[in-house]
């Protein structure tokens, strides 16, 4: 009940004194506070750490702890989450040092009372062996209590010196409670660890977003993941094209396509399925010149295929230069009239005679 909390207090002070992350955080908070307040303060009270998560900016509504954590992560990559490095301070939050001092005082008082009780019992009938055992036990307890009192006093003095190291004024050192001191640091370290994890996640998301933007709009073969495969495929295809038989076949096909496409006057082409148009001269002015026989076979084949494809697309999408007049509707040679209109307006004498109708006769079938 007494020795373990004192040991945790000693370890906790050593952890805080050697911790670089705590130094980075306090330095950053002091710089931010001086900038916002327009002052040049040398330090701030430890209780201000409780208000850091509550102070927020007016634009993004992010806490001051979030901004400080972002700066620490960016400026000091070797910083940690702080909470995992001060386990002794976290254990001190469950200890009441005022009650610990009372327990130590009560043990000392009870040990003295036990000596008095042993003297009273020893006056009456008591075996020497039992008396010796009780005496040895009480001596050992007294020595332990005396040592604990010395250790307690020295650790408390060392804690006061540690507060002076942190910048506390001399008159306020003895007023600081160990329980409250450890609670402030432990809760702040827990908040800092949570905020740091959130900041690192946002940083990773932004990095992934920038990486996606680099490859946005590009073909899949342009990215580094598939670039090697495409280049290997092209390299594997080039030797096959440049073999002896294929080279002769490509040379022959190139000559046929060249003569068939450049001859604009001929009505038929030597290439089956390729129709020559009368506007070949005008198109030929806009088409890039064909490759010569001395050019590379692969490049000529690609250019030839591109030119053929371009001519096919143009011939399919371009309408005729002169459109024929709209087809007129064939009219009957006879000047026919509608039956309804005929019945309404009546027939003339010539029309009645032509139809075989007389004025007083019926329709002759």
UniProtKB/TrEMBL annotation:
Residue ranges of the region described as Disordered: 200-246, 258-284, 315-365
Residue span(s) of domain DAD: 302-334
Species classification: Eukaryota, Metazoa, Chordata, Craniata, Vertebrata
Organism, scientific name: Characodon lateralis
Protein name: FH1/FH2 domain-containing protein 3
Amino acid composition bias (Polar residues), ranges on this chain: 231-241, 345-365
Sequence ranges of Basic residues compositional bias: 203-217, 328-343
Pfam assignment, any one: FH2
Ranges of residues in domain FH2: 1-218
PANTHER family linked: FH1_FH2 DOMAIN-CONTAINING PROTEIN 3, FORMIN HOMOLOGY 2 DOMAIN CONTAINING, ISOFORM I
Listed Low complexity bias regions: 273-284
Encoding gene per record: FHOD3_2
InterPro entries referenced in this protein's UniProt entry, alphabetically: DAD_dom (IPR014767), FH2_Formin (IPR015425), FH2_Formin_sf (IPR042201)
Coiled-coil segments: none
């Amino acid at each position: 009940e007494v020795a373990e909390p004192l040991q945790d207090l000693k370890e906790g002070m050593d952890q805080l004194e050697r911790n670089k992350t705590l130094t980075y955080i306090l330095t950053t908070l002091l710089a931010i506070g001086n900038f916002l307040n327009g002052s040049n303060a040398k330090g701030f009270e430890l209780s201000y750490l409780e208000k850091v998560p509550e102070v927020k900016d007016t634009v993004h509504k992010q806490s001051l702890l979030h901004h400080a954590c972002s700066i620490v992560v960016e400026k000091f990559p070797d910083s940690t989450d702080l909470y995992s490095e001060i386990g002794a301070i976290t254990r001190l939050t469950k200890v009441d040092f005022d009650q610990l001092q009372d327990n130590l005082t009560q043990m000392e008082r009870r040990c003295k009372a036990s000596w008095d009780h042993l003297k009273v019992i020893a006056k009456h009938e008591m075996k020497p062996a039992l008396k010796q055992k009780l005496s040895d036990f009480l001596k050992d307890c007294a020595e332990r209590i005396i040592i604990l009192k010395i250790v307690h006093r020295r650790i408390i003095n060392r804690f006061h010196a540690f507060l002076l190291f942190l910048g506390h004024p001399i008159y306020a050192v003895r007023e600081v409670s160990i329980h409250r001191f450890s609670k402030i640091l432990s809760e702040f370290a827990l908040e800092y660890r949570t905020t740091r994890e959130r900041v690192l996640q946002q940083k990773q998301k932004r990095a992934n977003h920038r990486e996606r933007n680099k490859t946005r709009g590009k073909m899949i073969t342009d990215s580094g993941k598939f670039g090697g495969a495409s280049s290997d495929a092209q390299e594997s295809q080039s030797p096959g094209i440049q073999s002896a038989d294929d080279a002769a076949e490509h040379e022959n096909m190139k000559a046929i396509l060249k003569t068939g496409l450049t001859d604009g006057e001929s009505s038929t082409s030597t290439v089956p399925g390729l129709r020559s148009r009368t506007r070949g001269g005008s198109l030929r002015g806009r088409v890039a010149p064909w490759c010569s026989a001395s050019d590379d076979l692969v490049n000529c084949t690609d250019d030839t295929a591109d030119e053929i494809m371009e001519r096919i697309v143009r011939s399919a999408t371009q309408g005729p230069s002169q459109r024929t007049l709209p087809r007129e509707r064939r009219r009957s040679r006879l000047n026919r009239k509608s039956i309804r209109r005929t019945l309404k307006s009546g027939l003339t004498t010539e029309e009645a005679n032509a139809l075989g109708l007389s004025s007083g006769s019926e329709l002759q079938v």
